[in-house]
Structure formats: C-alpha cells, structure tokens
Known about the structure:
Elements (H helix, E strand, L loop, with lengths): L8 H11 L20 E5 L8 H5 L7 E5 H5 L5 H19 L12 H6 L24
Amino acid sequence: MAKRREFTRNQREEIVERSKRGGKDIRCEGCGQVLGAKPYEIDHIIAEALRPEADKQKRLTIAEGQLLGKSCCHRGKDGKTNKDVRAIAEAKRRYDRANGLKRPKQKIPSKNDLRTRPERDPNKGLPELPRRKLYEARDA
Ligand SMILES: [Zn+2]
C-alpha cells in the first residue's frame, strides 16, 4: 500500500492563502467562519485511506485539500475526521467481507473457563512482610 500523501509546506501555504478569499483573515473552508487565532488544520477532502492505489501514485494537489477550523468543522462529534474514521472502518469491513477475511468471532470465556485457570499470586517470589497485630494494647 502506498503511504498517505501529505501536503508540502508550500501547498499548505497556498491553501491558507486561498482560504482568505482575497481578504486578510484565515477562514474555515467548511463553514466560512473567520478563524482569527483559532486553530485550523489542512484536511484531505477525500481521506487518503479511502483513496484507491492509482490515486496515490499521483501527486497531491491543493484542490484535494481544504482548510478546516479545528473546533467548527474538523474535529468534534460531527466533524470531518469523525465521519472519515467511520467511512474508513466501513470500507475495511466491506473489503474484508468481499475477500473472505472476516475474523472469526472469539469465544467469550465462561465463568467456568476462568475458574480452571491456575490462580496467580501477585506476591509470588516476594519476601513476606512482617505480620502486624490488628489491635495493640495502648499503654495507659
Ligand atoms: Zn468550519
């Protein structure tokens, strides 16, 4: 598998400039919000993990990237990353199913299985600590 392509420093700069839309403020290319000092990330519009090998042989272009505000559009529950992660997992499941790679289900050990295992002593090999009395008579 070809590895994930990253944007070059120059490409990231071009994307940042593009997000300004001719103005001076960096804007989220997802929702258009002016980000100011808020953190942003350069996102692969199509997640690299979802790209066919043929695509990954080509050079990455800035048209394949977008600047997203970290809190508004990229991370978070409904953010792009979360959606990508779900799509990637689904694609893997689909691939495995199609290729007969599904992992057999693991047996959940029953209480009985657990009982037959030898008991482990966490203090094995350690010197025994001196015994202490629970109650000691106070000197009057
Ligand atoms: Zn946004």
